[in-house]
Amino acid sequence: MESLERQEHGSSAQPARRPRVRRNVTASIAEDICSERYPSGSILPRENDLCAIYGVSRTVIRESLKVLESKGLVRGKPRIGTTVCDKDDWNILDQDVLEWMGPYIAQFDILGSILEARRTIEPAAAEYAAERATAQEIADLDNAWRQMRDSSDDPEGFTEADVTFHKVLLSASHNQVFRRLSSAMHAGLKYALHASNVAAHSRDEAIIVHGELVEALRLRNRTAARDCAHRMLDLAARDLAVERRLEDGRRIKPETSKSAAADR
Amino acid sequence: MESLERQEHGSSAQPARRPRVRRNVTASIAEDICSERYPSGSILPRENDLCAIYGVSRTVIRESLKVLESKGLVRGKPRIGTTVCDKDDWNILDQDVLEWMGPYIAQFDILGSILEARRTIEPAAAEYAAERATAQEIADLDNAWRQMRDSSDDPEGFTEADVTFHKVLLSASHNQVFRRLSSAMHAGLKYALHASNVAAHSRDEAIIVHGELVEALRLRNRTAARDCAHRMLDLAARDLAVERRLEDGRRIKPETSKSAAADR
DNA sequence: GGCTTTTAAATCATCATACAATAAAGTTGC
DNA sequence: GCAACTTTATTGTATGATGATTTAAAAGCC
């Protein structure tokens, strides 16, 4: 409202190319929701006002709102308006939603949930992968592992390789539910630990364990694979804990850990 | 259901009330995709033709397609048309998608994946629930359990109570990822075993185990809770296996278990 | 004749406007 | 003062036009 002007439509002078705006508008609105500019429970501006705010026609605004509605972020009722849903209703397993939450994800305290889920799921996935992984998948894992090893002093590349490793691992479980969850795990990995904060020796340990997991898959050793996955996630948990300590130190207010669930 | 002539648009004579059509149109298109009327890889009719087919304006068609696209069912490109995505790209964790797949879900061979996922996730969820469940949640579980017990000879009601039981259980884990997965588990429960096919003694066993789980949660006994969840899912797995045998017996052609993935 | 470039056509993407349906708020009648 | 009616604002849907983009045909060049 106050300082809006989101897109490049600034001065109405230039013809203002508008190819494929909808995706961007959807993301813009979603981001404004995630950033609490439109907090949960509030109703966002009328569609006509949204047209002015985002500089597009009502068609685009509507299509965007319908997409957001289909992912549980908002809920439109005739004559009333479009209200922002409670965060519990959001489809946080949806890849788009996770991307939109992106930087704000830390404020939704779902990183802990994601890590817990990973600790539950990835060992099982590793076990299934030990049974079912194809030679190609094992090769892909090996490649990802090599890339991790070769970029042990490049946090960016390391994280990227780590992400693909876990993506391929979940895929190699040949379980469609686990496969679909990889986007959530991805977000957990990507945003949980801003790569730079993870100590180098932590990366070294991770490389060792990841390598052992690949070897276990080659040998079709289910229990070893499960064990490696467990250890990998212990490392991740430790890093997240470190991260949290840093975070808590940065902002003064200490936060009781579990009281957030009762706020509704 | 199958042959219904999608809407009431048949003869153009009557005024044809059209409030809130979009949701229905979206579901109709989705169903036509799930039923393979528009198989994966094919491109569906032009938007203008879709207007005629479903008897609505292009606005509605577009909004519907955008929603479907946002859930990974289709993918539209300019000039090309809207192509049906491969099933691997579908958001099978999305509640709407699962509902649309509904009766056809058995053909997507994801029931096995869902059961596997449940066996992985629900024991962990039970363990967390033993720590974190509120008194209210335990009471809700108890209610669901009583309803299961009281409708032990009413397959419909039994399944319904079973579904809510597992929904509440996942919710009581206070893990947002698990909570979100309950829709998938729901579909797994609802369609995996057409209630009537499950033998009565199977239900009796289930009632016992569910009751023990509630008790374990009351006592905050994590290992007992996990154990009960395991046993519950062993029962479910057995029922699904029975179901599969029946299914395989019904249609003559015997099917090698894993070859279905290669049919596309 | 074969290859490259240009032009054209088809279809999606967006816009603008209009009408219908709906539910809140205001108004009138008693 | 309350109930029924009317007004009005906003979303839902319909319609047609324009712009953008890619496939494909047509034209030009060697």
Which helices and strands occur, and which strands form pairs?
The structure is a homodimer of 264-residue chains.
Chain A: H1 22-34, E1 43-44, H2 47-54, H3 58-70, E2 74-77, E3 81-84, H4 95-101, H5 111-132, H6 135-150, H7 155-172, H8 176-192, H9 200-218, H10 222-250
Antiparallel strand pairs in A: 1-3, 2-3
Helix pairs in contact in A: 1-3, 2-3, 5-7, 5-8, 5-9, 5-10, 6-7, 6-9, 7-8, 9-10
The structure holds a DNA duplex (30 and 30 nucleotides).
Description:
Two copies of one chain form a homodimer. Chain A has 264 residues and is mainly alpha-helical. Chain A has ten helices and three strands, in the order H-E-H-H-E-E-H-H-H-H-H-H-H. In chain A, strands 1-3-2 form a three-stranded antiparallel sheet. In chain A, helix 5 crosses helix 7, helix 5 packs across helix 8 and helix 5 runs antiparallel to helix 10. The N terminus and C terminus of chain A are likely disordered. The structure holds a DNA duplex (30 and 30 nucleotides).
What does this entry show, briefly?
The first copy, chain A, has helices at residues 22-34, 47-54, 58-70, 95-101, 111-132, 135-150, 155-172, 176-192, 200-218, 222-250, and strands at residues 43-44, 74-77, 81-84.
Supply database-style keywords.
about 260 residues, disordered C terminus, elongated, DNA-binding, homodimer, disordered N terminus, 3-stranded antiparallel beta sheet
